[in-house]
Design a protein that fits this description.
Layout lengths: L1 H16 L4 H6 L1 H15 L15 H22 L4 H4 L5 H17 L1 H9 L13 H28 L4 H14 L10 H25 L2 H14 L4 H6 L3 H22 L2 H4 L6 H11 L1
Helix pairs in contact: 3-4, 3-8, 4-8, 6-11, 6-13, 7-13, 8-9, 8-10, 8-11, 9-10, 10-11
């Protein structure tokens, strides 16, 4: 159902956006997004050892896969044509610092419940990954960088340039991100993969919103780092915890605060988002010419 919805929705957008010709398809943002997603996933399996089941957490596989995705990151701007630091959201300035701190604050508020749960159960140390662990470097440092650079910094401006609205881009770009995780079916059960598709899509909406509304890659990256470091909230442990009523309230309080603050704190005018100011003017000037 997920894939049917994804391809059907993308197909409708594609056919409505351009005349049906091979040249139009080849140059379309959606086609380039599909290809970039496929190349990203394919790069993980170019090494023979990385195709061996249950080897994904070995240091040899991690190093090879990181090398592969970094090559994809170098190639991606040439494929998408998104090659300025402003479009990629890579500029480091006062506003980008504010955007990064905003993402850290919002994501921490979202995890308010799990953080309180870890505190009252004296398990705060478990929230901090070990820096000597290769899996940590893959999942918390380099993995988020590669995924945000490809699926946010390249795909979002690419789709925006073709004329899709901010809302549509925030809605559909995470679908490419989610499908890039479907290869986990090789090592996980179908139920686990479907669940992962769900929460990676939801996270993708959040990350895309941060990127587009703040105009900063760093906002999306830091949010991804925190989410990967903390992992999915331990709902199973919560249900068995003697203090579950109090902790459930903390979960709810964090979620409500997150939803209330999300849009005010990511106001494009506050962050000087390139995609709401200069970028829109550039698109209009290009259309006029």
């Amino acid at each position: 159902f997920f894939f049917f919805f994804f391809f059907f929705f993308a197909g409708v957008l594609l056919l409505n956006k351009m005349s049906f010709s091979l040249q139009a398809i080849w140059t379309s943002a959606l086609f380039r997004s599909f290809v970039l997603s496929g190349v990203f996933v394919g790069s993980l399996y170019v090494w023979k050892i990385s195709r061996i089941k249950y080897m994904k957490d070995s240091s040899q596989v991690i190093v090879r896969r990181l090398f592969s995705v970094m090559v994809v990151c170098i190639w991606a701007p040439f494929w998408t044509g998104i090659n300025s630091s402003k479009e990629l959201g890579l500029e480091i300035s006062y506003q980008s610092v504010i955007s990064g701190l905003t993402a850290i604050l919002l994501t921490s508020i979202l995890y308010f419940g799990p953080i309180i749960q870890a505190y009252v159960n004296e398990e705060l140390d478990d929230l901090i990954p070990s820096i000597s662990d290769a899996v940590m470097w893959r999942s918390v440092v380099f993995g988020p960088f590669a995924e945000e650079f490809v699926f946010r910094a390249n795909l979002c401006p690419l789709l925006l340039k073709e004329g899709y609205s901010h809302s549509v881009v925030i809605l559909i770009s995470p679908l490419f991100f989610a499908t890039a995780h479907v290869h986990h079916i090789l090592t996980n059960s179908l139920a686990e993969v479907l669940f992962q598709q769900l929460y990676t899509t939801v996270f993708g909406w959040y990350s895309s919103l941060l990127f587009v509304r703040t105009g900063s890659f760093w906002a999306a990256y830091f949010a991804h780092v925190i989410c990967n470091a903390f992992g999915f909230p331990p709902i199973d442990d919560l249900m068995e915890d003697p203090k579950r009523k109090f902790l459930s309230f903390m979960y709810l309080l964090g979620l409500i605060a997150f939803l209330v603050l999300l849009f005010p704190l990511t106001d494009p005018q506050l962050h000087g988002s390139y995609f709401y100011n200069d970028f829109e003017k550039m698109i209009k000037d290009t259309v006029v010419k």
